[in-house]
Amino acid sequence: MFYNELKPGDAVPALVKEPIQKVQLIKYAGASGDYNLIHTDVETARSVGLPDVIAHGMLSMAFLGQFLSELAGAEGVKRLKVKFAAMVHLQDVITCKGTVKQVTPADGNRAVVTLDVWAENQKGEQVTAGEAEVYLPGH
Amino acid sequence: MFYNELKPGDAVPALVKEPIQKVQLIKYAGASGDYNLIHTDVETARSVGLPDVIAHGMLSMAFLGQFLSELAGAEGVKRLKVKFAAMVHLQDVITCKGTVKQVTPADGNRAVVTLDVWAENQKGEQVTAGEAEVYLPGH
């Protein structure tokens, strides 16, 4: 993807994740070091009034990180800032989306592209939303 | 501990672990890479006829590894070979024990001490048992 093909308002390619599975939450507990059992133990989740375990908020931010890495390469991700808006449940299908806010030419043949980014569930509800900056090359 | 204070039949100091908790099994899933949900998800465990999640068999072997490391230092553990004998459940208190089988002088001022080792639960049932060799210094 090249910055000079983008203008404010353009959508960038979405990233659609597989449905959230229990095993992913077990793995993410280890990856993140967040061992709060509401993410991995249904009995703990129910004891606090949830129907089942819920995903770590950071997991949908991590999905946005993957989304940006696929857009700009891991080295091209300059900034990502999000707020958590809604819980992510088992079997939710999270899609990461973004639209261009601004294109600012930078050093070398590249630009900083500012994006509105968000992760939404299969009902179209935003679960995490914020802003990102990536470096994209020109052509 | 010095090898020349040990003779066949002697017991070495036991290691008593904290009761098995859910969060330890979540952590051990990540540490071991064994994400079989019978160790972390009560619904999966019940679907195969278990009353609740059970510990990874390798976890009690890991406890024996800790037991030997505390005895001989991590570098002093030469060999550990075990068989799994019984399931480990939540709240089980595992104690690692060993008795000396053989003391074989080795190079330098040390010996290879062969031990019968096992992990047992709070009912005295062996859950994992086998043999180990450690290097111990002399004095």
> How many β strands of chain A by DSSP?
5
Summing up helix and strand content along with how strands pair, one would put the structural category of chain A as alpha+beta
- How widely separated are the two ends of chain A? 9 Å
Mean pLDDT across all amino acids of chain A: 97
The oligomeric status of these chains comes to homodimer
Q: Strands of the biggest beta sheet of chain A: in what spatial order?
A: 1-3-4-5-2
CATH superfamily of chain A: Hotdog Thioesterase
Report the total helices of chain A.
3
Instruction: Return Rg of chain A in Å.
Output: 17 Å
Named CATH architecture of chain A:
Roll
User: What is the CATH C-level name of chain A?
Assistant: Alpha Beta
Q: What would you call the shape of chain A?
A: elongated
Largest sheet of chain A: 5 strands, antiparallel
Largest interface, with counts of residues having CB < 8 Å to the other chain, equals: A-B, 14 and 14 residues
Number of domains of chain A: 1
Descriptive report:
- The structure is a homodimer of 139-residue chains.
- By secondary structure, the first copy, chain A, is α+β, with helices and mostly antiparallel strands.
- Chain A has a single domain, classed as Thiol Ester Dehydrase, Chain A.
- Chain A contains three helices and five strands.
- Chain A has helices at residues 22-32, 42-47, 57-72, and strands at 11-16, 77-84, 95-105, 110-120, 126-137.
- A five-stranded antiparallel sheet of chain A has the order 1-3-4-5-2, covered by helices on one side.
- In chain A, β4 (110-120) and β5 form a beta hairpin.
- The A-B interface holds A 22-23, 26-27, 29-31, 35, 37, 40-44 and B 22-23, 26-27, 29-31, 35, 37, 40-44.
